[in-house]
Each structure stands twice: as C-alpha cells, then as structure tokens.
From TrEMBL:
GO molecular function: metallopeptidase activity
UniProt protein name: NPCBM/NEW2 domain-containing protein
Highest taxon listed in the record's lineage: Bacteria
Organism: Sphingobacterium siyangense
Alphabetized InterPro entries for the sequence: Galactose-bd-like_sf, Glyco_hyd_98_carb-bd, MetalloPept_cat_dom_sf, NPCBM_sf
Record-linked SMART domains: NPCBM
Keywords tagged on the record: Signal
C-alpha cells in the first residue's frame, strides 16, 4: 500500500495550527495562568485509607502521561507542553472523594454511580458540562493468592468542550517501575484473567490505559492508523491492544504505542493543547450535502461536499468492515483547501462486504462534526449506501424519498432537499432590496442550539427520520431548527416592519410541559408563548425600529431532553 500522499500537507497544517496556537494563547501564558486544565479526581471507597505515597506516585504518573503526549505531538510537528493538569501551590491538585460504599460494592459497571457521588460532593468546584476530568479509582485489592483484582469502571468520553474518563489505580502503578523486567505480578481485570507478567509490562498496560482513555476524554475515536503507518515495533495507541504497549521499550517489549497521524491531526486543535476558548455551545452551521465514493487512478476516493458557516481545516475518515471491531478502523486524512468540498484517498474495498465509514470534520476551535455511513462495494464496482444508517446526507436522502411511493409529503421534501443542494449564500438583511423574505434564508449574527448544530430549512441531520421540519404531519419548507436552549440573532438595520413566524414542536416530541418561545427586539421581550406538543402559535409582530432581533427557546423542565422546538415559516416584511 502506498504511503498516504497528503501527509506533508497535514504536517504543514499542524505547523500552522501551532503558530496560531501561540498567537492566541500568549495572553494566558504570559499571565502564568492557563485557560483550561484537566481536573483530577481521586476516588477511594469507604473502607479504604489513602496510602502514604499515593500523591508522589500519582504525580509521577501525571507527569509521565503529559510528557508522552508532548513527545507524540512534537514528533508530528505540533509543539505543546503536553497535558495541562490542574495545579495549586503544592503541585498537581487532586480532588479527593471518598465513596459511600465499601470497595466490594463497586464494580466495573459502577461508573454512573461514581460520577454521581463525585459531582454531588464537588459541585460547584467541578462542572462536568464544561470541564475535562480524569477520575482515578482506588478500586483494586489482592486476593488470598496475591493476585491483584481490578474492579474499577474503565472508559473515556469527551469532546473539545468537556469530557470524563475513569481509570484504575493500585500501589504498583508507577512509571518509575516501567523498567522493572524481573518482578512478577498476576492480575485479573475485565479483559484478562490471571494475567502473569512483569511489573514493567503491567505498567505498560495500565499507564497505557490512562493515555488511551484520556484520548477519548479529548474526543479521539478508536483508530488503527493509516495502512502500513505502523511497523513491527510500533502500534496505534487508539487501536486494538495499543493501550497495552505504552513505552514497552522501557522493559524490553517488542513494540510501543504511538499516536496515529489522524489522532495528532485532531488533537492539534483541542483547547487543552491550544489554550483557545472551548466551544461550549453548538454554534457552527454544517450540512453534508453529498457523500460519494468512486474509483480513480487505481485508488478509491471519497468526495464530500458540504455547506458550512465555518470551514473545517481537515477531515478524518475511519473505515472498517462492519462485522469487525472499530478498534481496527483504518484512518485517512485530508487537509481542506476548498470552502465547500474535499477529496480523501482511501484504501480499496472488498466486494459485497458492508463497511462503516466515520467522517470527522475538524474545526480550529477543536470542535468536531461527525457523520457515519454504511456502504457496500459490489463486484461490478458500484458503491451502494445502505439506507437509514447514521446521519442524513442530502444526496442519499433524495434517493430515499424518490423511492417512497407512499409518502404524501414527497414533493415538499424533494423541494427542500434540492434547495439544500444549492450553495446559495445567506441573504444580507441590510442590503437586500426585496420587500419580503423568509428569515431562514438570511444571514444571522449569532446562533446556537442545545443539540447538534444550528440549521436553516431543515430540522437536523442526526438521522433521516428527523431531517425535516415536520408538525402535524406537514413538512415546512422554510424554518429554523431550534432545539432548546437556542438563540438566533439577526441585525435588521431598522429596515423591516413586520415579522410573522410559527412556533412549534417537531412531531414526536415527548415534552408535555412544552417549550417557551421568546422574541426579543433591541433587548426587550416583544412576545413569548409556551408551546406544547401538537400545538402551534403564530407570532404576528410589529418590529418597526428593531435593529437587534432575537429568537429564543427555553426548556421548562430543567433538562433539554426531547426539547424539539422549531420556528416555521419565519417571514419578514418591509
């Protein structure tokens, strides 16, 4: 397999991100205060006491993991200081939480329970919605045979905005022991029973586990690397068994874990490493219009066409046969050098086997927009996208709708989809000469929604089933996706006289208490109304003299689950 041709472009892109990082992060670093750090929680059960050396040992662990990230990123051209853990005057800061139960009452499935205990005790000092948090659990013991038994939850989840991972601790977890190739240990955990090895190899497993789960904390997916990216002495940290080979060279192991180019490409924009503001709210408008696979010059190409409020700097495609583990996903990368499309060279597909493709669009603020598709490649050379898997793309949805002879909203849907295939720029409300316009066709000043991304003239690309603006079985061709809490803000330049707009919840919303719809003009509430499922409310407002127009939705229940609000037929008149 030939080497991926755009690695040089990726390295140059990472270098540019590095330069931009230092320019934007200079203020915080000059003040010796970081914008973002990873908070560390040490959780131990009710029947255990902290050992005398726990802090020194964990200090070495955090320092080693941070140094590993610094080295791996640096080897690909991205200069960083590694992971910025929270500190105080004594060094690394640990938030200690003693559990309510004894050790034996916690299992590998106790993650949610432990999270609840932690956040109940540490609120408001730690906010899981805005922080990146490493939880180290002292949930292990020795049985009568001297075997270490680990029963800690072990996982990682996260994004550029926030994240949490849980890992396990014991008295032998220490990077200082990575070189110990003689002392023996036997341990049992969720993926191994009575595993016998040296203390050095054990630390490769468990320090590697921390490095791997922290990758998920930062939003990294499982990734086996580009074909032939790794040799007999290296393995992808985020791929299958990669976490078991952390610094294997220290104790004489045969291979050592490294980050793939795709992992570095994604990490290079993460706020923990760039110290830029976190993208807390979903603000970027993004729609994948076309997804196409084709053969060209003895290779397979994936061409993606999209509409974006902010253009991504790159794309990662992760591909694996659907009947195999996602740990074995091969990664392919491309730097975006056009505003609305990108092509990625990928490996050939075997015939008549379904493949899952994950596409990660990477943005400079660290946010990631993900699409999943399932495709098969026939022996005749045709690619077929399998319906109703993953997120909606416009070109595939057109095919689905055209083939549905029973859909009485077919023409309305096709009208929406064909319009979304166009690359029309949003209309400038200050300069347009028309006497009336649909507000959903206009450029907004600011927008955010409580789930997914702001969207005009469709609901959400989360799935085919939820794509259209539907209320009372009718498809609206014009409108705004407004999953609460949401805001759309427009500059009207005091040129418009009347606003007509329908507030509604999308069909299928399970929100009996309803959603509050609010319209503000120049900072003052012009009108508001609570709308419940299967209802509508028409706002017909005089907006003479309004410069700043804001459309807001607020959930009434204290959480935004199923808060499927939307604005339909938003019409401005001069």
């Amino acid at each position: 397999m030939k080497r991926q041709p755009n690695f040089l472009w990726i390295m140059l892109s990472i270098l540019l991100l590095t330069l931009n990082q230092f320019a934007q992060g200079a203020i915080s670093k000059n003040k010796n205060k970081l914008l973002h750090t990873v908070k560390v929680v040490y959780f131990y059960p009710a029947d255990k006491k902290l050992s005398s050396d726990w802090k020194n040992r964990l200090d070495r662990t955090l320092k080693d993991i941070s140094s590993y990230y610094k080295t791996e990123l640096g080897n690909s051209g991205f200069k960083s200081d590694g992971i910025s853990f929270e500190t105080d005057d004594s060094g690394y800061r640990y938030h200690l939480v003693q559990g309510a139960k004894s050790s034996n009452d916690y299992t590998i499935n106790s993650g949610r329970e432990i999270e609840n205990e932690i956040f109940e005790k540490l609120a408001p000092a730690i906010n899981p919605n805005t922080e990146h948090i490493l939880v180290i659990n002292a949930l292990s013991h020795k049985d009568e045979n001297g075997t270490y038994i680990f029963h800690s939850p072990y996982y990682g989840k996260g994004s550029a905005s926030s994240g949490l991972c849980m890992v396990a601790d014991c008295d032998l977890l220490d990077p200082a022991l990575l070189t110990d190739a003689s002392t023996k240990i036997t341990f049992t955990e969720m993926f191994a029973t009575n595993k016998a090895c040296t203390v050095g190899e054990f630390n490769s497993w468990y320090l590697g586990g921390i490095a791997h789960e922290m990758g998920h904390l930062f939003g990294l997916p499982h990734d086996h690397g580009f074909p032939n990216e790794f040799n007999s002495k290296t393995i992808s940290l985020m791929g299958e068994y990669g976490s078991r080979h952390y610094k294997d060279e220290k104790w004489g192991g045969l291979k050592s874990a490294k980050f793939s180019k795709a992992s570095v490409f994604q990490l290079s924009s993460h706020p923990i490493f760039t110290q830029r503001p976190k993208p807390i709210q979903q603000k970027n408008e993004f729609l994948l219009q076309s997804f196409k696979l084709f053969q060209a010059e003895n290779t397979t190409k994936l061409k993606l066409q999209y509409r974006a409020g902010t253009v991504p700097y790159g794309v990662v495609a992760l591909i694996h046969p659907y009947n195999t583990s996602e740990y074995l996903s091969n990664s392919f990368t491309a730097v975006v050098n056009q505003s609305n499309s990108v092509e990625i060279d990928i490996a050939p597909f075997e015939g008549n086997i379904p493949y899952e493709i994950r596409m990660l669009f990477l943005f400079h603020n660290g946010s990631v927009k993900e699409y999943r598709k399932m495709v098969s490649h026939s022996n005749e050379g045709d690619f077929l996208t399998i319906n109703n898997f993953g997120q909606a793309t416009v070109n595939d949805l057109i095919r689905v709708v055209e083939n549905d002879s029973l859909d009485n909203q077919k023409q309305a849907k096709l009208s929406v989809l064909n319009q979304l295939l166009q690359d029309d720029q949003p209309i400038n409300l200050k300069t347009i000469k028309k006497d009336s316009i649909f507000l959903s066709d206009a450029a907004w000043e600011e927008a955010y929604v409580g789930w997914e991304n702001p969207a005009r003239n469709y609901y959400t690309a989360e799935s085919n089933a939820l794509f259209f603006l539907e209320n009372s079985a009718k498809v609206y061709r014009k409108g705004l996706y407004a999953h609460a809490p949401s805001l759309y803000k427009y500059k009207l330049a005091k040129k418009w006289r009347q606003l007509k707009i329908i507030a509604a919840l999308r069909d299928g919303a399970q929100k009996p208490e309803g959603i509050q719809f609010i319209i503000r003009g120049n900072g003052k509430i012009l009108s508001s109304h609570n709308v419940k499922p299967n209802e509508q409310h028409l706002f017909d407002l005089d907006i003479t003299g309004v410069d700043d127009l804001e459309l807001l939705t607020q959930d009434q229940s204290g959480n935004n689950f199923n808060a499927w609000s939307m604005w339909c037929n938003p019409y401005l008149i001069k």
